[in-house]
Amino acid sequence: MNPKLILISQDESRYIDDARITVERPFIGDWNLHIRSVKYEDRGIYTCTVNTNPVYSKRIRLIVQVPAEILDYASTSMTVRVNEKENVHLWCNATGVPPPRVTWYRKEGIALTEYKKVGDEGQELIIKNISRHCGGVYKCMAYNGVEPAVTREISVEVEFKPEVRVHARRMGQYRGKETILECVISASPQGENYWRKGNNEIMRYSKLHSNYRTELYTEGTNRISLSLRIREVTATDFGIYTCQAKNHLGFADDNIELYELYHPTTRLPTTPPVIQTPAQSYHPDKSWRPPSNYDKPVSDGRNNEYHQHNTPSPKGSQGRYRKPDKYVTGHMGTGINDQNGVASPAPNMINCVIMAVLSACVQVSKRHGIC
């Protein structure tokens, strides 16, 4: 409707067939045009004319404000799937009077309840070289000062080929024990995930592999944990296991080796036993006699022992005693030279020689088991 070309009323009579429009005169000199439930089509210039001489008229521009509205057909769909490292264009086409401002936000936080502003204001948001960490829920909000503001959420799913990682390259276990092999798979979307041993795929539930069981746990966005539980390890279970994953973008795997552990064995002591020999008693040789030129020791009262010499004393020394000519001292005992200059074995020296021979015999028996 164009108010400039259409006659609405004259005096108190209404010439337009629109029940929303009436002429009201609260006072004799007032002529008020009342429009109820204003529409956007009601905008324009309205002229009030008074047939006086001269004619008096007044022009009024009616501006109709329209809240922001997001056009579905001209905006990005609610879900977008893109490959990693591609450029992404998100559209949020909004109209309104006055033209609305469009602001972009991204859901963040542990519970994904917080929104953080991203990019610049505008109807288009460009994400260049997108990574898996840039996926999530994006929201555009259009507002022009007229309540209410309108929003639209767009879920961006970044797809990438699988990545597989095992926690350890090698794992040891004893026979008869239960063990768990685990791998972490990152992929979008998740596809086929399974364990293999050699060329044989281990099914999740199979009579052929009743000793095995696979378990799947969600670790986070686009990440799962795939465990292989071996209930009772046998000799045939040791070897290389492979965790594999694939989707429409690619394939990945990783290996882990299960090896056998052995219980420690008890060994005999390496120190040879000690051979107990009966104590050897010493029996002195009773046939031994001191040299003929010595008598029994005689003390001079000052703790010195002298042996009496039977040969005639030199002149002026009769009745005197003198010390022995020479003593032979060793680490095993003490002997006295006889008259021929040969040391006579003392009793304690003989005993030490006997003990040394016995000690040597014991050492030989330890090494060779003889003697």
Automatic annotation (TrEMBL):
Keyword Glycoprotein recorded:
yes
| InterPro entries on file | Ig-like_dom, Ig-like_dom_sf, Ig-like_fold, Ig_sub, Ig_sub2, Neural/epithelial_adhesion
Where is there biased composition of kind Basic and acidic residues? 297-308
**Keyword Glycoprotein (UniProt):** yes
Q: Where is this region: Disordered?
A: 267-327
Q: Which CDD domains does this chain map to? A: Ig
Q: Name one GO cellular component term.
A: plasma membrane
Compartment list? Cell membrane
Where along the chain is composition biased (Polar residues)? 267-280
| Coiled-coil region list | none
**What residue stretches are annotated with the Ig-like domain?**
67-157, 162-259
Q: Where is the signal peptide?
A: none
Keywords in alphabetical order, please.
Cell membrane, Disulfide bond, Glycoprotein, Immunoglobulin domain, Membrane, Repeat, Signal
* Protein name, entry field: Ig-like domain-containing protein
